[in-house]
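User: Here's a chain of 243 residues. Predict its fold as tokens.
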Amino acid sequence: MKKITLITGAGRGIGEAIALKFALENHKLILLVQKHAQQSKLIQKLKKFNIEPEFFVGNLKDKKFIKILEKKIPKIDNIVNNAAVANTKYFTKVTDNELDEMLDVNLKIIFKLSQIFSKKMIKYKIKGNIINISSQLGHTGAYNRSIYCMTKFGLEGLTKSMALDLGRHGIRVNTVAPTKTIVNQDERIKTKERLKLIKRKIPLNKFSTTKQIADIVYFLTTSSAASITGTSIVTDGGWTSGK
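Assistant: Prediction complete.
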């Protein structure tokens, strides 16, 4: 029987790459996207796999949308919490609205979705996986990233605690924490100098790729990773190893 994998933020970048990887591995996909245009684009890309994913289009900050997901998705084997927002403001310039959005999207929604679907895993005795897409900035601080780092550090702590609580049910919980990942190739031209500065901080002198991240996420759902839980796969090229 096909495994059922739910992916949030599947409409672009890392989320899209994860969806394509799990399609390649013959999973049944439930994909959460923000826009119908993203759905149409993904449908075209997934045609070659001869699968028909189930889509939910909406805003994860909308509590009614969360209720719809809870009601209409009976059970899953894996959830990949990929959806997130960023903020690059200096600490004293961050507004209350930006703080609230960051906490909602990068922490509260992940908590709520994980709680909803882990209950379903427990109900159906599914030894499933919860994989949270974190960041190297969940392991080290950075300039002008105060609230982003705050949520990613929080996500790492949440993941460890969830792993302890859910381990008795055979549910594994981990994060994947990439370094800078280029999801839009225009960035190579528009922010060329900034990318050079970032790359100098990475000992391996290269960025993560969306495909590499997707492969790691898939690995965490396999039997080869059966004893991995409550930890972070830091795919940062050595960034957090030290200066």
